């Protein structure tokens, strides 16, 4: 299969979404001038072009796109061509109301925004296939074309009647018999036994709590339906251009999409990444998304969208201070990106996103935003030869699974304060702040490459996943599991004992008496640290080799942390410093060490291939010890034993 | 009529909801073994069995229920048999969408949860009657059967078209003429005069505030429609088993149900009680519900549901610390319960309530939860002979009325911070913390048995209720009324002067100039204490014998509290200590004294029949003076003059 | 055209909404007695009389209104007769569901409240015209009739199908061609190009952000549709009574109504004003509304509704302390009102507003509320000869425009914390606290009468408005502009550079690099003061004569405030004291001074005609220097050089 290297050919891609429909042709030529000055080598065309290309049903108006493709080619800028199917033209909803999604409480989502399509609508899919077919036929051989971009940020739900019918088909395929479905959903409780497939609905507004099995399957179904939309279009373009890679851009950690499964269907994995410039841990959020995307890609990946300045969808949207755009872009490259792209090239003057920044802001060429973009383009060109296509290696893996998340995120759970992404982020943060490079992995992946595997929280685990974890430890791996892991099976059926018996045995737990979730502002004292969010009333079976007890309170003296051999169980969420210390110490015990010793807290160091990235996330200059002599690819200067970084400064060091 | 004593026959019932549909038969036998070990003597079957019993319309599948009834009988466990009508099978909504409730803004509540039935649906009622008829016919003579349990926690609203038609029928019956309705609702305001009955709707989403008379009647109608559902099923089972009592379990202080009126239609009054283990006043909440349920039952009552551990519907669901389940169960018995039951016997492994605890938790037989349940079963068996069937006597009554609550809870009221249940609870708390045993009563009940009557807040009072209060004081009773009492009549028509003239005269008030609600965090100084939530600009008529003035602020010098003879009016909500002191002093003045003198704050003492319950709600051991020698029925030991209680400990003392 | 002076004839109107349908005739006579005792000389009849007048479709029942008109006339009380069209009778919704409004997410607003009519419904408009015609025909010649009051507080939206059709008609008229519409709305973005007019909808619930151009035009359309409802009725009554003035009462600063445009269609401008008695700046809110209403009226105006005590629609509704009703009423007169009226005469006993105060409260004649009303009536009679019809003069104008507000209030804006009314109020507050009398003006009005023009924030400005501002400065005016002014054109298209180039040149700004909105609780240091809410990264062009820089942080050293000649730009919102000081100083520099020197902070002074109003908003008595000798029209006493005011006291001084 084609991959990203055929697009990059040794370069780092640099550019962004380009939506020239918004401007007259004169502006296109101005755009090209500014792009070239900024070393832009790739743009994404067509994301929102459906109403331009097909202004009325069945019409085709390719003229302006022809001009644009030629213009890009003439100027040496590659085109990632998007199918325009994320935003159907107004005529589609008007003529075909069946294409509009319906919310869980029966309200239609109308046109006038974007993504107002039902993933289950046969009509929508027919129109989407037709325009995709014609686009692929017309531009498949165009010399500017480098990659296909299917749709944009798939992210819709639909609870309407056509989705209901599709849900029933999906369920029949999964369960074959109604008995199996009734068993899996536990419909014996609350008198929910289905006597016909026709009786099944999406989990629409109920009087009281929904059936969690139904909700879980509806989430699986939604991910699968969206994936069907993707693969249908992918197959069309692939037929025309088998040599070109295909992608669709993820929103990071979007709840509705099993990105492990999706990634398998993509040639290039791409993601849109928007950390809040005001988040003191914005860089860690970036690192998490980058690590996850790289792990899904199993190699170089594409940063499809980021913002050169502010976005427009937070309550308060802050611009990026001087240097931050460059710093975070280099961070993405450090963590495996071979493409640094933006939404969007030129900031809109109209429409819903005109306060979302562009590479060229409202201030234009003289504006700070474009000036910094231009500098970054030069930087990327400078470092590309030494980093493009290179891999990272990590000794630590963090396990993550959408199905576990979906299963756990139910209304009637013990604590509404436990939000899976927060727990995942807390554990990744501990590793990141300990300067340990980590991959993400699925719980059924081969874990043997890793010296240390960390499970922040996997509420539901399949038998295969449990076997995988046991085998990993048996084969010498070190496993650290956070609270509320292994509670349920893949149908969200609670395991006898409230936690899988094999896991309890692994950790030396006899009985899990009760879960003790903590209130807002509450913490629980453990020997040597404080726990937050959760605690558990555990009784050991006497086989644990090491335990950290709770101190005081109802759980006084009971084990908070157990270690049996190479398996650790942590029944609370230790405060950030404690969790970092615990993981750093466990890692150290198995020979996993930071990229550099003695790194200041605000400095991130990542080795990609041979090249060492040193990134200063702090607001003050800092000096970092880097033993030996390196060439800083950004400046061309040699540095010996230590490097000084400006605020938000970076060094890209080749030994 | 049959009553609870025919079921208890000298025992305290102990057990809970049993939903064995969820497990294979093998588990049923395990269940019986554990039930017997825990002295379980009563289970409720069938609450959620409709789809098992009637898997498709008109089908009947009684096999498993037959087996279960026999199994219980063979093991000496009585069965409270529930009609399964609270959770219709999916086929009902599918084939009969008219059975589904509709919200005030037109959204359907679909199947997939529970209680998705319209109280007004003729179709639903027909199906419900048919399954009830067949259940009664089949099991009416079964030797395990001890009682009927109709539906479960009636609690639905419906604003749909069939409910609208029913509402109109209900209104015609209430008002006979449109003129009377227009007059009662004050439709002359805002041009709302109805010219035909057909023009009347439930109070659906308006542009601006709804008509409060319409809303009030809709609340009455809702309670009555649900009651019709209940009595229809009750009448069916009663026809088959006139010797067996019938109940339906209340949710305590549920807004939608006039439980005074409902209780009159029940042979046994039962309630579901779930205080928050983290609420420092959880025990007081329990006492309030228990006092109210006992008052509705006018004797022993049934604790139909409580939780052995956590529930699953609070934001954060805390387990019960060691001992608390036993303590709160004994509290219920102390306050008149002859049955201590749980939702549910065995914790679900699947479905929406799998994180709601059971008597057998996920941890199983070895889990702390079951072990404590077992101990409690033995305790109850020990004390039963001396307490079952015994009555309590109280010298204080707290008045409560749903119609007053309904009338007051309107959108356009003066203070959205005044929530009736909070005010009610504040006054009950004061009495509970003063160690005074209290009943609840309806404002039209005979109050002469009580030395002291307390009205926390009755915004609306009928003329009959006002006459009743006046007669009570005339006949020597002492009455203490909280603010905003007697403002409106039964149609929610404000009484001239803003407070009924007879009440003003009773308290010595000439003019109520203005109400002065208080903001969040605001309090008002009165002589000797602080007031919260509310204050009033009152002018006395010179006849009050005692007044406590406001100090400072706009109301400086005006009366905050007035006493005229035996009638007190309290125009603010005194801070907890002040209200407790005020009520204790007034009670003392009429010879009403705590059960025991010198009780520590965290200790509750209640006398039921001859037996004295002493309950330690505190986290530390405590010693209590109990003059004389008693036998502690829990331990069999004699105690003289003082008894020491562990944390959450209890003594049940017979003189 | 007729105006207010023909109604007042030298008197100040005093009275209120009178809804006697709610009471029996006996009460009407009691009402008249109390009205006369309070010097009431004007009442508004008929606001909610539709179901009385037309109890079933087409019926006419004028009997009671005849009696009331005669009764008023016999007692010398003028009648402002309202068309009853704000609250259709229940039969209208029942027989004509097409008259009911629909929310943006498709929910119907039912009858049972008020204002449940669709502005676009042909059926509604037909019924409204018919009843208006018959009212005008019957009462046009009645001697009690003094003025027409059309509808009441127009304030509805409608997203339903008939509104959609009307929206399309409105758009066709505005744009003529689809190309023009597509251009104005920027539909090229997000694939929203319309191929037929039929494809256009109101901005109903989308999946993601709506098109801001569509939303802006829908707001314009809504204002225009409501205005059509108004003018249709106005034209009918005008035909019958060309000599009588017509009004419709505004809600102050109601978002949905372009009151500049509406005012042009009214003979009398009237407003409903309800400051919160607990708001420490309630008087300033009153002053703002009064200044705006006077500016719309270009002379005397009518306070159509205020509350004698509490309202019923705030979370917590506070009464007015002793004296406040009088003080705020005199404030309205000081600022140009020739009518002081209330909602409503007698407080309702039933219905949704029974806890909204009346001139006669529940406490009745003896209640403080009526007693204070009575005193006020006498006061107004005393001062009327010297103030009625007199004008105010102001040297300062604050610019305000609904279209700018509408355009800026979009979902995807940079800061959800920036609410236009708050910014407007902050600037007016600064002027009010500096004791400067101000008008409001539209940005295209002639500004030459003013020495100082202040623009708190006009996000969008037409070219004509920009030309007007430039011309104003060119001609010697002094202009102070707040942040985020001139960002967009009238289609909400961002001006190149993010701020209009002509304005940038006016202020000496070369580049607006980025907007820096501030978080909750965040402030930004500027030299000499702190800024809140917002800041900007500006680069001067070297022509500014004065700049105040930001200090520290990301904007350190960049200009926060620029002055170039007589034009000031303030890129943040200075803290209240700082903004007051800045504006007072600028005003002083152009010779604009407070009405009185040395005024204490809590005292307001306004000169109307020859008469000086001195108003003490503080809770303590205060002495104010007033050079010279004046007659206090309230007391008849002469005061020399200083006047002492009680708490909430006032003096009305004639030289």
From TrEMBL, chains A, B, C:
Residues 603-654 form the Beta-galactosidase C-terminal domain. Substrate binds at residues 114, 152, 313. The keyword Lipoprotein does not apply. Keywords: Glycosidase, Hydrolase. The active site is at 153 (proton donor), 305 (nucleophile). GO terms for biological process: galactose metabolic process. Pfam families: Glyco_hydro_42, Glyco_hydro_42C, Glyco_hydro_42M. It comes from the Bacteria. InterPro entries: Beta_galactosidase_C, Beta_galactosidase_Trimer, Class_I_gatase-like, GH, Glyco_hydro_42, Glyco_hydro_42_N, Glyco_hydro_b. Its EC number is 3.2.1.23. Gene3D superfamilies: 3.40.50.880, Glycosidases (3.20.20.80), Golgi alpha-mannosidase II (2.60.40.1180). Residues 394-590 form the Beta-galactosidase trimerisation domain. Transmembrane segments: none annotated. It catalyses: Hydrolysis of terminal non-reducing beta-D-galactose residues in beta-D-galactosides. Residues 17-382 form the Glycoside hydrolase family 42 N-terminal domain. The keyword Membrane does not apply. One of its GO terms (molecular function) is beta-galactosidase activity. It is an enzyme of class 3 (hydrolase). One of its GO terms (cellular component) is beta-galactosidase complex. Belongs to the glycosyl hydrolase 42 family. This is Beta-galactosidase. It comes from Streptomyces paradoxus. The lineage of its organism: Bacteria, Bacillati, Actinomycetota, Actinomycetes, Kitasatosporales.
């Amino acid at each position: 299969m084609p991959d990203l290297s055929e697009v990059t050919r040794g370069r780092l891609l640099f550019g962004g979404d380009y939506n020239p429909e918004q401007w007259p042709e004169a502006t296109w030529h101005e755009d090209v001038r500014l792009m070239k000055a900024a070393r832009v080598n790739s743009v994404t065309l067509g994301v929102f072009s459906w109403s331009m290309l097909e202004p009325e049903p069945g019409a085709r108006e390719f003229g302006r796109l022809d001009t644009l493709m030629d213009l890009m080619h003439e100027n040496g800028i590659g085109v990632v061509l998007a199918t325009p199917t994320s935003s159907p033209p107004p005529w589609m909803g008007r003529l075909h109301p069946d294409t509009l999604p319906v919310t869980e409480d029966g309200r239609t989502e109308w046109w006038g925004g974007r993504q107002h399509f039902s993933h289950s609508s046969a009509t929508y899919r027919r129109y989407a296939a037709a325009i995709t077919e014609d686009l692929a036929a017309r531009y498949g051989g165009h010399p500017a074309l480098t990659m296909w971009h299917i749709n944009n940020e798939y992210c819709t739900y639909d609870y309407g009647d056509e989705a209901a019918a599709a849900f029933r088909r999906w369920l029949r395929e999964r369960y074959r018999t109604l008995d199996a479905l009734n068993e899996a959903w536990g419909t014996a409780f609350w008198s929910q036994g289905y006597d016909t497939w026709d009786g099944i609905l999406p989990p629409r507004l109920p009087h009281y709590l929904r059936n969690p099995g139904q909700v879980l399957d509806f989430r699986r179904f939604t991910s699968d339906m969206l994936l069907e939309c993707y693969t249908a279009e992918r197959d069309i373009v692939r037929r025309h251009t088998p040599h070109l890679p295909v992608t669709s851009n993820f929103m990071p950690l979007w709840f509705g999409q099993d990105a492990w499964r999706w990634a398998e269907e993509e040639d290039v994995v791409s993601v849109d990444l928007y950390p809040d410039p005001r988040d003191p841990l914005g860089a860690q959020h970036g690192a998490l998304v980058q690590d996850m995307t790289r792990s899904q890609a199993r190699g170089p990946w594409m940063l499809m969208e980021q913002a050169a300045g502010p976005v427009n969808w937070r309550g308060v949207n802050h611009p990026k201070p001087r240097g931050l755009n460059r710093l975070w872009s280099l961070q993405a490259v450090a963590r495996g990106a071979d493409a640094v792209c933006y939404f969007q090239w030129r900031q809109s003057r109209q429409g819903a996103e005109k306060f979302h920044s562009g590479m060229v802001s409202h201030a234009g060429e003289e504006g700070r935003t474009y000036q910094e973009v231009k500098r970054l383009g030069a930087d990327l060109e400078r470092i590309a030869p030494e980093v493009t296509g290179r891999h990272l290696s990590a000794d630590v893996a963090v396990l993550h699974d959408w199905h576990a998340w979906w299963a756990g995120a139910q209304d009637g759970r013990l604590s509404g304060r436990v939000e899976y992404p927060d727990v995942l982020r807390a554990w990744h943060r501990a590793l990141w702040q300990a300067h340990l490079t980590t991959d993400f992995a699925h719980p059924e992946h081969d874990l043997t490459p890793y010296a240390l595997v960390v499970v922040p929280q996997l509420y539901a685990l399949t038998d295969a996943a449990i076997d995988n974890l046991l085998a990993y430890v048996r084969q010498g791996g070190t496993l650290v599991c956070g609270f509320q892991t292994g509670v349920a099976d893949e149908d969200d059926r609670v395991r006898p004992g409230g936690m899988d018996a094999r896991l309890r045995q692994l950790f030396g737990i006899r009985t899990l008496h009760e879960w003790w979730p903590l209130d807002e502002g509450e913490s629980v004292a453990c020997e040597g640290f404080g726990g937050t969010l959760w605690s558990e009333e555990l009784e050991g079976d006497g086989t644990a080799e090491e335990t950290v007890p709770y101190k005081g309170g109802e759980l006084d003296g009971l084990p908070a942390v157990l270690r049996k051999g190479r398996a650790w169980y942590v029944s609370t969420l230790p405060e950030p410093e404690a969790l970092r210390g615990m993981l750093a110490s466990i890692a150290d015990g198995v020979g996993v060490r930071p990229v550099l010793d003695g790194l200041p807290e605000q400095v991130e160091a990542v080795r990609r291939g041979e090249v060492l990235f040193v990134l200063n996330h702090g607001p003050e200059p800092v000096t970092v010890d880097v033993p030996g002599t390196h060439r800083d690819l950004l400046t061309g200067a040699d540095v010996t034993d230590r490097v000084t970084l400006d605020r938000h400064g970076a060094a890209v060091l080749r030994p």
